[in-house]
Give the backbone structure.
Amino acid sequence: MTGLCNLDAVLDIAVIGAGFAGLHMLDRLREHGFSCHAYESATGVGGTWFWNRYPGARCDVESLDYSYLHDRELYATWQWSERFATQPEILRYAEHFAHRRGLWPHITTGTTITGAAFADGAWTLTTDTDERVRARFVVTAVGCMSAVNTPAIPGLARFGGTVLRTSRWPAEPVELAGRRVGVVGTGSSGIQVVPELAKTAAELVVFQRTANFSVPARNRPLTQAERDAAVAGYEQRVENARTTRFGHPVTGTGRAALETDPAGRTAEFDKGWARGGTHIVATFTDTGRDLTANAVLADYFRDRVREAVHDPETARALTPTGYPIGTKRLCVDDDYYETFNLPHVRLVDLRDDPIQEVTETGIRTTRSDHELDVLVLATGFDAFTGALTRMGITGRDGQLLADTWRDGPRSYLGLAMAGFPNLFTLTGPGSTMVLSNVMRAIEHHVEWVRDLLVYAREHDITEIEAIESAQDDWVAKVADLAGKTLYPHTDSYYLGANIEGKARVFAPFAGGLDAYRRICDGVANEGYRGFRTA
Ligand code: N01
């Protein structure tokens, strides 16, 4: 624990979470003289970057974009070492920000909020350390990918070896050299961890249910000239944050794939593949909305898999089929496919050979027993809603958020919910979340919520709550925008489809961060239209 607040007092604002959103929120609130305090489950700050410390973890957004922009001096002085930063470096960045802004005394770490109830104009938070915190307002900064998904694989508890989760990787070193390691899950985390584990494991068995589309990162050290250019271009970057769909520019050819001849298409895709990173999906204007155009891009990726993987059967299994590219998050890798050419690395295609059970000594699939010393679960998250619904949030008249969201999340702007006054959700479901650079989404939300709280103070507002009809309109808008994309074609965590029993609802706002920001600005400029105040 690093600092306690006076638990008898009523805070102006409690912040839940001390990742990038929580740290920035706390800082902005303190700057404006609010009494506030943050609570964090982890024993340190950094949120997702505290927990996801598995070998190979790094960001799939380039470091110079995955940085706070609101702190100009920090932007000018922090020296990212690589094009795509590693988890340890990003964690150091978060810790540095907390030190720089004097935030540590205002954060209680190692403390999980287990309940939040609204009554008599204030929230009462309860913690797993049996403490109670009273606050007039609560801002959640719990992240989009923080509630761990542990799959219901029969026998998991009986495994006699070591079970590790990429999303809760231990801080102390894990000895994997010379051991037989199994990895379940081939999303972004699995695809990043596999090449690293292969470097030391005696045997590595990768259990894949769905083959993912992945693009090479082409990671490399950043040059001083690149860092200097980024600092010189700071104003433009700030402007881009306001005016672009993703919060940073993604430049393509501006042409449609279906109106470009095949040789021209391949030449452009080759450039994107050689450059590395996710920008390749924006090469043409139609691959994100037209299934035929999408198939052209998907086929290009499939050809790269067949080119990289020597064994034809393994290549076939690793080739993604059956869903449009981009409708699950595109993975970014370092030699993922090449790893399967190593003699001690094997792929088990669970579509052909499903897991029957975990035994004391490994994983039994329909056809084989795979003997393992270590089992790595890279099985993802109850994304977007899980961290909120698991927290025991109870609003007006005792309504439980988990019940209110049983048929899918309902929010106004992704920031507030009818029936839950004085509660704001940074990067909540219904906002752009992971469909934009999440750093830019965080900065927007923090500024917007800060402005609202200042407005409330200036206008003696003690209660502010989303109006049901405004929320209904927002939910309909989010659904309508999703319906115009290819996302609903695919079972993914975007739709909650990775969690058994979860309502199949597309949670993010798919209209772009620029459009989202304009809507939120409009709401604020009209005296917080869609909110009831008292
Ligand atoms: O999780 P995922 P993740 N049996 O849900 C499989 C961010 N992130 O942690 O596709 C067997 O994508 C599941 O299979 P299927 C990023 O936003 C960012 O990898 O459901 N397999 C899938 O293969 C990312 O998108 C970075 O058929 C099972 C995998 O587990 C998000 O976090 C790095 C299973 C889960 O993939 C989540 O990524 C890492 C079962 N019972 C993560 N249950 C950056 O680079 C699940 N699976 C910033």
Remarks:
- Residues 1-7 have pLDDT under 50 and may be disordered.
- The chain has 16 helices and 20 strands.
- Residues 233 and 401 are 43 Å apart (CA to CA).
